[in-house]
Amino acid sequence: MKKTAIVALAGIAAVTVALSGCGRTEPGAEGGGDDAAGFAADASIGVALPDRTSENWVLAGDLFENGLEEAGFTGDVQYAGSSNAVGDQQQQVQQMIDAGVEVIVIGAADTNQLATQLEAADAADITVIAYDRLIQNSDLVDYYVAFDNFNVGVLQAESLLEGLEANFPGESPWNVELFSGSSDDSNSAVFFDGAMSVLQPAIDDGTLNVVSGQTTVQQTATEDWAAENAQNRMDTIITSSYQGVELHGVLSPNDNLARAIIASATGAGFPVPVVTGQDSEVASVESIVAGEQYSTIYKDTRALVAATIDMVSQLQAGEEVTTTGEADNGAVEVPSNLLDPVIVTQENAAEAYADNPDLEPLTQQ
Ligand code: BGC
């Protein structure tokens, strides 16, 4: 367009809409994705995160603040409080909608409690990206960015079996207990299903003995992902099922719970069992290097936030959004970008965290 033409058009309000409409793509028909293709380069982007109970959420908040700003956007990053997280988050998302954001990135406090807010976002033509946790039963979730959560569970279970074989060779059937995450987080069942795809056959053929008999996602849930709930459940199971019985291993869905489970077991006088984890939290990486916690999962938050901001930039530019597949949220197949998780044990910790200046030094002890 000639300079004179630009000047002539400059006062016309419609120009922004017309220009931003250029190159607009109509993303995948399924799961929405039909909003906000092409918007102002300095648009406001809302990020609603659940809580600060895991280090990954704390890190994500900082990375979103900085990364959105670097990409030229105005970021509005909010955390739900821990006492009324669901209500807080609903209110924060509504405020973002009222403030006129173009995209809202949501790490849901409760993956089933955002229906009203998604309707309001849709009515305001705002794109919704589910971050890490897939919002359930709604066709108003436009995109999903996460690590492959089923595979997280598979890797945890494989490492549990590997650790049992390494630490207690020839002692099978191994006595184990299973923990899953909070029931208001749709990831919990996905992690657990992934793990059980490996563990159920080993339970069925007698390789593993779940002494408590608690093997369903409901029986093994840890509400609010709270460490004290995991510790209490482990204490109770030890009292009821492990009098004079060895505890060989525990499937833990994340690091925060892993450390609580280890505290329970050692507090009851047991040696540290083989315990899995997730998130590569500092205290757990230290524990793995020291030969206590057996494994964790590395889901590099820097990569996940960068992938999300890339998605926002693609939407801003009106480009086709990069996706690797789709994820079923009970209502639709949501176009998704799923990253690969990495299993970390004492053996590969230095290698796995080699490019992470926060974690790599912890492996050099
Ligand atoms: C996340 C995990 C985290 C857990 C508790 C899950 O949805 O995927 O990384 O440990 O929530 O915050």
Automatic annotation (TrEMBL):
Residues 45-320 form the Periplasmic binding protein domain. Keywords: Signal. It is found in: Cell envelope. The gene is chvE. Gene3D superfamilies: 3.40.50.2300. It comes from the Bacteria. The keyword Signal applies. This is Sugar ABC transporter substrate-binding protein. InterPro entries: Bact_Solute-Bind_Prot2 (IPR050555), Peripla_BP_I (IPR028082), SBP_2_dom (IPR025997). PANTHER family: D-XYLOSE-BINDING PERIPLASMIC PROTEIN. Residues 1-20 form the signal peptide.
